[in-house]
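The freezer alarm interrupted the setup, so I double-checked each line after restarting. Inputs confirmed:
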Amino acid sequence: MKMHVLQALGLGRQAGVHPPARKLTRARAIERMPLPSKVILPLQQHIGACAKAVVKRGDEVKVGQVIAESDGFVSAPIHATISGTVKQITTIASPITGQPIPAIIIESDGKNEWIELVPADSEDLSNEQILTRIQNAGIVGMGGATFPTHVKLKPPPQKHIHTVIVNGAECEPYITADDRLMLEETDRIIAGVKIAMQILSVTTAHIAIEDNKPQAIERMRRALAQLSSPERITVVTVPSRYPMGAEKTLVKSILHVEVPEGGLPMDVGVVVQNVATLAAISDAVTLGKPLVERVVTVAGMVSEPKNLMARFGTAASFLIELCGEPDTSVDQVIFGGPMMGIAQPAYDSPIIKGTNCVLLKRSDFRDEHSCIRCGRCIDSCPMGLMPLMFVNCDKKREYEALPDYHIANCVECGACAYSCPANIPLVSYIKNGKTELRKRGIK
Amino acid sequence: MDKVSKLVLSPAPHLRGNASINRDMYIVTLALLFPCAGAVYFFGLYVLLMLAVGVLCAVLTEYVAKLMRRQPFHMDGSAIVTGILLVLVMPPRTPLWIIAVGAVFCIAIAKEAFGGLGHNIFNPALAGRAFVTLSFAGALTRWIAPVSSLVADGVTAATPLSEGFITTLTNGVPYKALFLGNVAGSVGETSALLILIGGVILLAFGLIKWQVPVFYIGTVSLLSWIMGQDPLFHLLAGGLMLGAFFMATDYVTSPLTTRGKIIFAVGAGILVVVIRVLGTMPEGVCYSILLMNALTPLIDRYVRPKPYGHMPTTRKGA
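Predicted 3D structure, all chains:
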């Protein structure tokens, strides 16, 4: 009753924004691209500790061979993605942070020789064995957050997990990588869902897909209907509203519960996994195949945007060349979508595990004006924050006040900056505020 | 593709919506054209002169103020809106020099002295109106009936909210005239119909929230009814409609959250009735909004959205 009254008064949270979808590659089947002559593999493609190189210059490597081992539990190994010779171990600018990180450069022998894969039946494996296979395959969250998957699938024993949410929302404009994967690799994804359910011993899974992907919804429903043993896996249609694919937004949208502030979905008994991650889990467990490639949407100002199956370490320029002519005014290459993606310093930045999109665009700098207190940032914030207050505090250098406005809750989705009529780069102010707080040791 | 060419780095998001301050202000200007047209129709071509002087002085003052403050001048349209609004709340035969003084006050004192657009505490147009009313009271009390000819001077008439207006009525309250605007009053306030059209434009473009006019007007109606007055009369007479759609909705001087905006609207509604019924002044819209403007920082301090996942019990100390 109370909720109805609040909603009638326009006080229920109807947050998020509706950027133009621009999913022009929706109908383009995933194309397997030719192998590059060289790959650059950063040793940190995930959240957590940087992997440690276990090969040296001149070593011969095969596809799927471990070239860097994970360093600790929250870390992930890196595998060779082409067969050939280790040409160099060097330092490059991270495609995520821009900070220098170690990388291994492999020169192709053109043979695409794989290591010997050891298939298995997931039902014959113990949970520990399955998790080890996932860990050894170097799987990380492929929706962009790149958190090591084996960690996420092994919540502390005191957390009672009851539901797996499969994230097929893909709410960023342009990107169709997950959409295509759901259409073309439906069974692999469902196999991955079953494995995740087995490990977490849950009986319920919801596959969440935004309502602007009716084909994927239809395809997924049909595949589920054909399952011999009826598992409790359902397809849930969620409204197309950015950032629907953010974990906490998705949990609330489907289960109508909010993850406690500062907590994780597992605190409300939920594990969220992206569809591409689940397909990779299936490959790792049943085929013993490590993660060496992913679907990347090349979009924006190119004449032939495509969905490409790309090996990690491939230079973005190599992908772009396969997609026709880029517009001459292109001066930005973004890894990820336009809302949260990261601008790359050069065309040869390598594709990594979290790169779901290579977006070509023209830079669009706009003068920042004074805040007119229109409140659009508040209305758009999926986390119920007052983003303009972070800007005010930053400008006055009153960083101590930031926690009062719950800055830690911010997921940096950019909905506020998208909706700001004064062109205030709110996310930059928020990141700066978080950095200043860290410097001062304030949580 | 030129692989060596430098790429441009910029922080996310790399996509911006189509909202801009200019767009907002020009939509408000468009919406204001309806009450402006009504003002000219009811009170003659002199209103056009008033509008020209009001807008010109407002824009020029902003330009000079920015020069003096060594800040870039943006033609963002906000001064145009202020200039128009100031004229719309003036009596029909206000001397042009008073309009000019008012416009300069609006921009120089009420807006720029506080730091410019986004920093002012009081609605500039209403602050300007209050200033000239207090300074030139004698010149601003000559109300005329709507003129039949566009150029002729009108005859003095009582505004609906003047002392004893209702008692002079023999055929009941002229609701139709009040709704259409065919009564004495400030140039842009008399036609509820034209203001509503402008208000619908603002709502359609998502520039204002429906809660503000609804709660403001609703409170005035309910409270005046409780106090034994004619609620419909209070709704249509005076500046309530213009205030509800164009003044109480001002972003800069009203609260940030929808909850806060509702508190603001209800508070302003109470003040209108208190001033109209209990006070000595005939009209209370201007002061009701200015008073609530002053309370806005306080409302914003205490009325905040609930952060996602925030549990009151997990709150430590603060």
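Quick read of the result. Chain B has one domain: 21-300.
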